[in-house]
Amino acid sequence: MRLSADAQHLIRFTLNGSPVNARVEPRLLATDALRHSIGATGTHVGCEHGVCGACTIQIDGAPARACLTLAVQLDGRDVRTVEGLAPAPDRLGVLQEAFRRHHALHCGFCTAGILMSVDAFLKATPDPHEQEVREVVGGHLCRCTGYTSIVAAVIEAAALLRGDGPHV
Amino acid sequence: MKPAAFDYIRAESLEEALAALAQHGAEARVIAGGQSLLPMLNMRLARPQVIVDIMRLDALRPLRREGNTIVVPAGVRQAELLAWPELAARLPLVAAALPHLGHTQTRSRGTVCGSAAHADPSAEIPLCLVALGGEIHLRSRRKARRVAAADFFTGMMATDKADDEMIEAVTFPMAQPGSGFAFTEFSRRHGDFAIVGCAARVTADRIELTVCGVADRPERRAWPALSGSALDDALNAFAWELDAREDLHASARLRRDLVRSLGRAVIKEAASCV
Amino acid sequence: MRAERMTWTGQSLPRVEDASLLTGRGRFIDDLGVRPGTLEAAILRAPHAHADILAIDIAAASRMPGVVAVITGRDVAALTTPMVAGLKVKVQNWPIAVDRVRYVGEPVAIVVAADRYRAEDALDAIAVDYRPLPASMDPIASLAAEAPTLHPTAGSNLVSDRHFSYGDPEGAFAAADRVFEIAIRYPRNTGAPMETFGIVAEYDPHEGVYDILANFQGPFSIHTVLARALKVPGNKLRMRMPPDSGGSFGVKQGVAPYALLIAVASRIAGRPVKWIEDRLEHLVGAVAATNRVTTLKAAVTSDGRITALDYDQVEDCGAYPRAPEPATLYRMHGNMSGAYAIDNIAIRNRVVLTNKAPTGLVRGFGGPQVYFALERLIHRIAVGLGLDPLDVIRRNLITAGAFPYRTATGALYDSGDYGAAVALAIGDGRLADLRERQAAARRAGRSYGIGFTAVVEPSVSNMGYITTVLSAEERAKAGPKNGAQASATVAIDPTGSVSVTASSTPQGQGHRTVLAQVVADVFGLQPQEIRVVCELDTGKDAWSIASGNYSSRFAAAVAGAAHIAAGRLKDRLAEVAASQFQARAADIVFAGGKIAVKGESGASAPFGRIAGLTHWSPGLLPDGIEQTIRETAFWTPPELTAPDGADHVNSSLCHGFIFDMCGVEVDRVSGRVRIDRYVTAHDCGRVLHPGMVDGQIRGGFAQALGATFLEELAYAEDGAFLTGTFADYLLPTATEVPDIEVLHMESPSPFTPLGAKGVGEGNCMSTPVCIANAVADALGVADITLPLTPARVAALAADPEPAPPAGAARPQARAGDRTLRGEGSAFVAAPRAEVWATLLDADALASLIPGCHGVRKLSPTHFTAEVTLGIGPVKGRYTAEVKLSDLDAPSAATLSGSVTGALGSGGGSGRITLDDAEGGTRITYVYEAAVGGKVASIGGRLLDGAARAIIGQFFAALARHASPKRPGLLARVRALLKGGRS
């Protein structure tokens, strides 16, 4: 199937559990499609060369740099972004609450990507060592926090999600 | 920082992908995981007219065992290889090296063959392929052929692959009894390209050391079982032969020092696993 | 300080900012919608460090789909005036190159198009004809008379040279037992916020108003600069900030020149224009901290008491002295003696221009540069005198009884007990244990060092400090500048609920939370009942020239202003309540959401009922009591006076204290430095929110760690910029940043409403030099240069290298020299004359270059052509010029060439020698080449190998061409070429 460069093409995928569609040129980056075509602006753009991790989303459950993904590659996929993390519009999820308790965000620009990475990570690794957490968070750049609070929040969230953490 | 325009072909069959490569040659680029290609597209360092997406081809997955080798087809992501339960037993070198390849967020998308195709001189997968004597399976409409990894990587991001060919799979020979393997690398931060990466394979009568990050492709040397100052001399000669690069991240001197010190360390570690 | 109970202030409450940021509901500038019809801009940037612009051809770009306008420097100059600078010097500060480019990355043209993709397409179609000029990159070399001059109108690259003398430094040096000296070069780095710059601008041609939405951190003095440059009065430049901003660390001051460009672009395009800077643009051209060359001397008694300092500072501000520079050099002027009581100080401050990006605000702002020299010197003094560095520090600290303490250069240190803070750090930080760890490591043959640093962290800048760069006479002529106006507004609506705005532009610090805490305490309310909005709008909010977010002024100044405003409202509400309750105002209390008469049986009413009264029934206000609807407080500290006639300046209002201590272990082979323990003890006055203070310290530490080990905005000697991506400009990640131990004591500032001082920048000042001192201690070396890359550290520790085996060549490379050198040879089965003829035939020569077409022959040995060059997937189109010279027929010739294109430029030359060989000719070549522009900035790691491969390809093709009839020869030639060292 060939999509020509100068035309717009319909893509359909699942975003946070709901079907969405957009008309995109082949070169449109997934970041721009999510943010500007669909309006899911929670995913941020920090470098557009795959290093900073701010744009990390989940595609079919696995973390992915949205800036290194073409919008057309999302077609038919199951995509999750930060907008889908909370259990209800006026509530926060366990991981989000832990971030708030630990002051694990300042400006919050990089936060969405970190949350999406860690969310996928904790599903695969419910009881991580601190070094594993550091390596996952190490796939992101945060310029505000110095990371200590992020690592602490992740470890606490993991414990809570396992059901053996401190009750807060 | 947005890509220049290109046509996008989502290949429904291997034939469709190969036809596109045959038609467009150097103006076409295969996209698999996209972790090396997309940065270059975004920076407009690469401006292909056509992008050929091969990730919906079932024929290019999953990894399989073939004789004494593990075949990793082009659709297999690095994370999938890393998660393969038999990896540590069958390919201990790859199991040791893969966690150093980028980050979990890029391994989840990047493919094993894509890393080979990119041929970065510091990358771990080309290093492992050369160290283990792996092969690259190339296919075009004209023919299919297999190239030894040592011949495939010809220089800085340069390979023996013709413009109309794509990597269909790479194969890694499985570990055999009597061989010990070890990997280590030095990078400025965890997950960065290696300043020096070293892979060793040691048997009772033979030492092999492969080094990435120093020359413009992974380089392998083999010696009979050496030790002591004879090994030091061999490593020193190897370090100088590699004509180490001087760049922003490390001096040539540091690279040579690391070849000598890390080389010795991985050889020792590999010997202990024999 | 007011007497209300501080229930909330001082607590680590959850931040009100967090929930929206955690759920993707943040409103950063690129998250906001724009007006329909808004266009997007992309900026063409200079590939050369220094070049005259001979011509810009925009015709092809203008015709491209979706393109609305293509704007050059001359178009911008026609509608604006140059930006004013803090220096009186004849330099035109344009935000875009006009006729000459002076740094790699300087804007050259702007494309305005339907979207960013199409705008970037058109950038590629703009043809700029440059005449490259020699670049001046090194600040010291740039001072020389023969250095290439950036701005001929200025006459020299030295744009400011001031001498200062306080006390009697000459006498102190003459009387000194010992004199110690240190020379350092502090590198360029930057704050690199995760969100880049963003602007949406619109021009109303009828009212003549520019409306600029930007993630700016001002407006402060820069609003004035922009209004002047746009040739409008201040009220016709409306600047607005989005609700959220993704970090700044000073850097977003640098939005200013781009605000001008996008404003002008919107005026020319006749539509709103949006520009979101990308990361490559940010690294190459946003804002750098100054690199500085410092020579510092100390006069010292034999027991380690410092009696005088003599600074010689050469500040590199890059290509333009852009406002507020040279503020980096003067921000610390009152603090040049750091935490020490030193009465005699001499300073020479020079500002020099070089072909690098202009500098500006970066967290730490002048502090890292000063303290790296001062605290390294303290360490050197200790080593030189055989003393413990800790003893030298303690011997010179300002004593607790001396506050408020006036420094020799004029700062008034507000409060502190430095000795107690040091004692806290070495006690709770367990120095004795650290020393045991060091001894154990050394016994085991490992290199372990301990470093100390004492730092005074200034905050709340005096708007007048920058005028210290002018002479007293010049200052008198210009009129005094001083103070630091902060403002906040507290408002009560008809339902009696409280809203707060402030002239702050937070970029993640949590100011809304703290303002809610402070105001809730005043009114006896819950913080969540206070609604705080921090989206500054210069068109309608209360602000002044000091407003904005810089010099760590929020806690000390802005939160204080909010406290004052709320307090005034509270006083009036007390009068209203007293009148309602028929009680005395002095007996009215605000607590628990109620306003009540003191005492158990006192009357009371819900806060909102009294608070809203002035809306519903202003007639019930007691006589002489004004409305309780809205109160704006402006606050400026009287201590911030203008510099005096002898150049004394109280450059900042508040002075926190930091004492850092660390233990590091150095791997002598790899140069890796492991931080074993890092202890940082802070006294930042009263702490308003411990969680945020902790976050500022840890975040500052991580940035400082980057400056110490990883980060440098690096340039080659030829001016090429080398760190244009996050793969080359390395920020620390979670795997590099260790947990640190943070200790606190509180010496409230007597000069600020809440007793708070700034805390955001201190570790950027203290940490790099603390670690450097530890590394110096570990290795026993004197000279430490940042960043401490593995190669640098390994070189400090290195033993002589094992020699190459006999017969192997030792490569000759000079540090900092990026010239590619290579040589090789090839055998061609053709007679020498035939090969020579190929070289002399321009068409034949052109055919050797891969993808070469459109040859224009200028002479038989000189041609231009279009070429496509690349390696792997990296390909670019270039215009090439190739020339053959120094002909020595038929034996040798020099082949020189240059290429320019969208990806950058390159040039080189090689000497080709032909020799008869059996059955043909041997071609031997030696070349030198260099590559610059975009590809050097972003592909540096791969570039050298790529250029070598391309040169190799050329000679392979030459060999192939010269013997076209022999089948199978190609493979042979390739094999031969592989053998050559190329």
Could you state the order of secondary-structure elements of chain B as H and E?
EHEHEEEHHHHHHEEHEEEEEEEHH
Shape of chain B: globular
Tell me the number of helical segments of chain B per DSSP (H or I, 4 or more residues long): 11
Instruction: Quote the beta fraction of chain C.
Output: 25-35%
Largest interface: B-C, 55 and 61 residues
Strand arrangement in the largest pleated sheet of chain C:
3-5-1-12-9-10-11
Number of strands of chain C: 35
Between the first and last Cα atoms of chain B, what is the distance in angstroms? 50 Å
Shape of chain C: globular
Regions of chain B with pLDDT < 50 over 5+ consecutive residues? Answer: none
**How many alpha or pi helices of chain C?**
27
Q: Mind telling me the C-alpha Rg of chain B?
A: 19 Å
Fraction of residues in H or I helices of chain B: 25-40%
Specify the structural class of chain B: alpha+beta
Biggest sheet layout of chain B: 5 strands, antiparallel
The overall average pLDDT of chain B, rounded, is 96
Computed CA radius of gyration of chain C, to the nearest angstrom: 32 Å
Helix proportion of chain C: 25-40%
Structural class of chain C: alpha+beta
Largest sheet of chain C: 7 strands, mixed
Mean pLDDT across the residues of chain C is: 92
Overall description:
The complex is a heterotrimer of chains A (168), B (274) and C (982). Chain A is built from five helices and six strands. Chain A has helices at 30-38, 94-101, 111-124, 130-137, 148-162; strands at residues 2-3, 9-15, 18-24, 56-59, 62-65, 78-80. In chain A, a hairpin with a 2-residue loop joins strand 4 (56-59) and strand 5. The radius of gyration of chain A is 16 Å and the shape is elongated. The mean pLDDT of chain A is 96. Chain B is of the alpha+beta class and 274 residues long. The longest helix of chain B has 21 residues, at 252-272. Chain C is an alpha+beta fold. In chain C, helix 11 (367-385) runs parallel beside helix 21. The interface between B and C is large, with 55 and 61 residues.
